[in-house]
Design a protein that fits this description.
Layout lengths: L1 E6 L10 E5 L8 H9 L3 H7 L10 E5 L8 E6 L8 H17 L4 E5 L9 H15 L19 E6 L2 H29 L7 H12 L4 E6 L1 H7 L2 H7 L7 E8 L7 E6 L1 E5 L19 H16 L4 E11 L11 E3 L5 E3 L7 H12 L6 E6 L3 H7 L4 E5 L2 H14 L3 E3 L4 H5 L8 E2 L7 H10 L7 E5 L5 E2 L9 E2 L4 H11 L6
Parallel strand pairs: 1-6, 2-4, 2-5, 5-6, 9-11, 9-14, 10-11, 13-17, 14-18, 15-16
Antiparallel strand pairs: 3-4, 7-8, 8-11, 12-13, 15-18, 19-20
């Protein structure tokens, strides 16, 4: 879909459909909606007066105009009550409007920003609109051959801005949103792809492709190279699979040579059977999603490069399968990690923290100013917080606050869990330095406590995305299935990083 920003007024635009919005409980119209209503002979006002449209959140109505009017259809989207307005509401409303337009086999549509009394920058609202449209229209269809829903796709969306002074800012914001939304879609595609088509090698190839044509250096370490380094925690997990493990590194240098590095680390288990400690068969098919953290990291580095962010960034993804092969690691085994610290394997189904232990240690080679890891790490986090929230733990209050600020802007919610010393006691090993599971109680927290042993003194935040990485029920701009969670959160964090003085 082609995204355009043009100068002009919506009521004067030749378009198959024009999207306007309206707040619940208000009778008056404003901005582009008011002008469209006037030019169309009061069509919008009429459906509001009749009660056919109330403006409740995500409500959509389609109005057909009369012959000779340049706008063939008016699509009015509800935003809920004005006092409850957020960027998240805006994304959702435009996503639902775009989906309605697609269902009508319409080829293109237009809209304009016309909000009054909303204390948000125009650029943010432009980003929200474009993100909502692109992400709301996302579908994963490459493997569908029969009983396939009509593959109609909208060719173009035009955002109109009549204010000359605001035009450049809106155009730049739309381009930014397009880049970020494309990165989210990329992550969704990777996570949705079945494990037979997305092996560790395939994931490494996706990373290489993402780096092409951008200021990104991609390197991939194979098993032998990892063995020489001493990455025995990662290699231990990989032993049960015939698919060779990969350590993927993406380096983006957009800042000064002397500027600090930010490290992003993403769990890349391309299929998780649980290993010898095998999982129940129910929903094991969804274990293809256990590399959602790695997908988010690859996508975020790609977006940072395309946006030209003035910072230095490294993305690290340890990738392997966790299978119960004849050579698989076993409960009771002791692994010596890259850090030199030893790990007693309590369960082979706590494999993510093992591969992350080596990856976090490896990240330390870049002497980063901050490390953020993302992982579909624990079912315990889902039990604690449900499917809608990312669990956050970490060692640096300032870094956690920056993540919260990015979460507020993106709608990717985070909630902090404690990382007190009592939890660290639970992962002390009996026969080794640490054990890879502290038991069921506080499972998400003890997993993070384990990871903290491999981050040194570097400010670090762990994001457990096990809940929102795969949705069983769609949201307005997130389909059922892979959500691409974490991409927008990371990119917004990175966008905030440079201006706040970390140069």
């Amino acid at each position: 879909m082609k995204i355009r920003v043009r100068k002009g007024r919506l009521a004067e635009q030749e378009t198959e459909a024009a999207v306007v919005t309206h707040f619940e409980g208000e009778t008056g119209l404003e901005g582009a909606a008011a002008l469209l209503d006037e030019r169309s002979g009061g069509l919008i006002g009429e459906i509001i007066r009749l009660g056919d449209f109330t403006g409740r959140t995500n409500q959509i109505s389609v109005i057909y105009t009369r012959d000779g009017f340049p706008v063939k259809r008016i699509v009015i989207a509800g935003l809920g009550k004005r006092a409850d307005f957020t960027l998240e509401r805006l994304r959702g409303s435009y996503a639902k409007a775009a989906q309605q337009i697609r269902s009508l086999n319409i080829g293109e549509f237009s809209s304009a920003l016309h909000f009054r009394g909303i204390d948000l920058p125009l650029e943010r609202m432009a980003e929200g609109v474009v993100e909502g449209v692109i992400l709301g229209l996302y579908r994963f269809l490459p493997f569908k051959t029969v009983d396939r829903e009509p593959n109609h796709e909208i060719a173009g969306f035009t955002l109109l801005e009549s204010d000359e002074a605001a035009y450049k800012a809106v155009r730049a914001a739309a381009k930014t949103a397009e880049i970020i939304a494309a990165a989210v879609s990329f992550a969704r595609d990777i996570v949705s792809t079945p494990a037979n088509e997305m092996t560790p090698t395939d994931l490494a190839n996706e990373a290489r492709e993402s780096a092409k044509g951008k200021n990104i250096r991609c390197t991939v370490l194979d098993a032998e190279q990892m063995r020489k380094l001493g990455m025995n925690a990662l290699l231990g997990v990989a032993r049960g699979s015939h698919a060779p493990p990969q350590l993927i590194t993406l380096e983006y240098r957009g800042g000064k040579k002397s500027s600090p590095v930010i490290a992003l680390v993403g769990k890349g288990i391309t299929f998780d059977s649980g290993g010898i400690s095998i999982k129940p068969s129910e929903k094991m098919d969804l274990m293809k999603t256990d590399m959602a953290g790695g997908a988010a990291v690859i996508a975020a580095v790609r977006a940072a490069a395309e946006l030209g962010l003035p910072l230095n960034l490294v993305g690290i993804v340890p990738a392997t399968e966790n299978l119960p092969g004849g050579n698989a690691y076993k409960p009771g085994d002791i692994l010596t990690s890259l850090s030199g610290r030893t790990i007693e394997v309590v369960t082979t189904d706590a494999e993510g923290r093992l591969i992350l232990a080596d990856a976090l240690t490896y990240a330390g080679r870049y002497k980063p100013a901050a490390i953020i890891d993302l992982a579909t790490l624990t079912g315990a986090c889902v039990v604690a917080l449900g499917d809608h929230v990312i669990g956050m733990m970490g060692t640096d209050d300032g870094l956690k606050q920056e993540i919260r600020e990015a979460a507020d802007l993106t709608g990717e919610k985070v909630w902090e869990l404690p990382l007190w010393e009592e939890y660290h006691e639970l992962i002390k090993g009996d026969a080794a330095d640490y054990k890879n599971s502290g038991g069921r109680a506080g499972g998400a927290i003890t997993a993070a406590a384990f990871l903290s042993k491999f981050t040194g003194d570097t400010p670090w935040v762990h994001l457990d995305i096990a809940g929102p990485a795969w949705l069983t029920k769609e949201k307005p701009y997130i389909p059922k299935g892979a959500s691409g969670v974490g991409v927008r959160l990371l990119v917004q964090f990175l966008r905030n990083w440079y201006p706040i003085g970390k140069k």
